[in-house]
Structures are given as C-alpha cells and as structure tokens.
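anyone seen this seq b4? input:
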Amino acid sequence: MFRVKSHREQTLLWWFENRFKINMAPTYQRRGSLWSKTKKALLIDSVLNEYDIPKIYLADFTHSTSELNEAKTPYAVIDGKQRLETFFDFFEGNVVLAKDFVLDDEPTIDLKGFTYLDLKQRFPRVAQKFEKFSPAIMSVVTDDEDKVDEMYVRLNSGLAVNAAERRNAMRGPIPRLIRKLALHPFFTSRIAFDTSRMAEYNTVAKILLIENRGRFVDTKAKNLDRFVQENEETKIAKFEATRETIIRVLKEMTEIFHERDRVLRNNGPIPLYYWLTKNTASHKKQIRPFVEQFMDEVKANLLISQENPDKADAELTSYYTMGRTTNDQGSLSGRYEILQKRFRRFLKKRVSGRR
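predicted toks r here
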C-alpha cells in the first residue's frame, strides 16, 4: 500500500497545538536543529510576506495501523522536519524576526527582532497572519518502509545531507542494522564526539563493513554506500552472526572505556580500537590506559617533529601522518599494526613493572 494525497487544510496554530501527535524523529530522518538562526528567521519572513513554502510530507497513520508507526503517533515526518521545527520554535519564542525584517503589507511598522509573543501583544493582526497560515501538507499512507525510505531519498536528492544521513534513508537491511547498533550503550554513553549529524552512524557503518569483510578495507563514503546497495535485497538474517560479534565487542568496549571518554573525542580511530578489543585475548582492561598514553605520545611527538624532526619518533610520526587519510585501507592497516605493536610493548612493561 502506498498513497500520497493532500492533507486536509489546517493552520500553523493547529499543527503547533497538535505537535505532540507528530513523531519528529523517525529512524530514517536526519537529526533536527540543523538550520541556522538566519535560515529560520527567513522562513518566518516568507510566511508573513506570503512567499511560497515547499510542501511538507508526513507519514499518515490516521487511516490504518502500521508497523512503521514506531512512536504510536498519528503522524511521522518524512520531509519538512526543519520547517516544522522552525514554525514550532517561533511559537515557543526560540526564533526571532531578522534585524532587517520588513513586512511588505505594512513597511512602516518596525518588527525587527520581534518574537511571536511580541507580535501577539503589540501587533496581534500580524501574529494572526502567522497563526492562520496553512502550509501544504501531504499525507503519505503506506505500510512499506522501503517506500518511505525511497521517498525520503528522492525528496532530499541534491540537498545538503551528509553521507551518514543519506545512507540512513537507503533501502535494505544495512541501514536498519546500523540504526540498531548505534543505540548500543557504547555509542550512547561512551563516545564523546559530536553526533548531531549522525557521525556515530558513520562509525557503525565502518565497523559493520570491516567486520563483514573480516579485515580492514577502504571505508570511504562510496564504499559504505556500495555495501548498502549490494545488500538491498539481502535478508537481515544473513548478518546475524556479524551483528552478534559486533554487539559482543561493543559490550567489552563499554566496560573498557569511561562515560563520555576523552580518548573517544575523535571518531576516526574507533574502528582501530574495535579491532584491537576484538583481537585482544587477555588484559582487555589495559586497552584504555594504553590508548590514553599512546594518544599523549602521538601529540607530544608531533610537537617534537615540528621543532626538531630528527629527534621525533618515526613510528609515531607515521601513525599521525597515516591518520590524515583515516578511511584508506592502507592507513587503517598501517595504524593498526603500530597500535598493536605498541600495545604489546605497553603490556610487557606493565607486567615487568609488577615483578
């Protein structure tokens, strides 16, 4: 079942009052709050000055029950999340009119920097103009997740979505598996890098590809996309063993690393730490102190190499240099070899120090 039709006309005020009936974060969506203050103000300007606003697409669950209704709400946003968030933010006072705003109908009144509440109190007619605006909402009635994913990709083709956001909306079992693995406690509590643009999804995709291949491979965006596309028609059961292995290793990593760990502020080396954890038979608890010491050594060596290259540690310099192309197979393999070698040396010193 797949049908797209115009939703019955409703005002912005109606949608705001019913905002809790909309799932604003379905799994295929990119993260919200990505628009700048300037872009948000421009959208409000467009409404007040009666410019055309692109259509908003909502999965409509008011007609029938569907397994796609994750949050058990009447609606879920497919396209137009940033616009809806901006409208709701303006109602809540989190967006203000631009410093150069001019109301074309009444250019003599000064509304620069006004909030919605300011308009309600001083210029209620202008506030009503915003409240009564009826955006073009399209209802998408379907129980086919692939159709929703495909619509999201088509609507966002050519827009400023990053690789992880685009991949998240692709068809097949891989994006779904990535979404589930990204909810693991390691990614929700241990990593310390910015996840506002789904960076953790990208890291999961790299780990999944490496684990599936059983070795380091190129993890560039095009390779990750190809991995998804190659398996569009594959049953998710095929990846069950891979999934179980990743969950087991991530559980170990959750025990090894600290909450919002400073050594996990960069997502680049996490596939290396994953591989090191997986292939370390004993002394796993020593991985974090080793990583912390190793990071400090790499940073200190970088300063030495800049001041006096002859005194720098060539191996550490090589590790840093290879890190500039973090997704290359050669870089991953080369850095892991150094990491593993240094870890063995670290363990030997720890053991000998206890004697």
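The first strand starts at residue 2 and ends at 6. The chain has two domains: 2-160, 180-354. kinda curious what u guys think
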